[in-house]
Design goal:
Radius of gyration: 15 Å
CATH architecture: Up-down Bundle
Structural class: mainly alpha
Shape: globular
CATH topology: Four Helix Bundle (Hemerythrin (Met), subunit A)
Order of helices and strands: HHHHH
Helix content: 40-55%
Distance between the termini: 20 Å
Strand content: under 5%
Amino acid sequence: MRMLHDPSTRSSIEARLRALRPDAPRKWGSMTPDQMLWHLNQFLTFAIEGGKRERKVSPLAAAFFRFFLLYMPWPKSAPTNPKARAETTHDFAAERERCLELIEKFVSRPVDAAWPEDPSWGPVTGEFASRLQAKHFDHHLRQFSA
């Protein structure tokens, strides 16, 4: 399973981000490319800075969702954290540049270091965060054929 901390995975994602066009048609969902970049940036920021967990779920449900997130295909147009719902337009170039900067900041924290509590998933390891970010990027870049 790929991790954003893996240099080849990171390089591939960054190349796909650079190839993304502001007018790229989407295969599913309602986000535009600028909104998708903003959305990804929200989740990178959550992973880097952490935040107060809004939802409490049972340990069994949390374990199931974590397994699903990492090992199962994601449905198209799945619900997301309300704080990461893109509802307005954004500057495409600025969001892409911010995304590349956030990736750099994200991977600068070692995988085996302490990671902040995720507002959606609670306490996480660096490995979980890195795998989740890589999968999230791939999901949305495929959404726009990038």
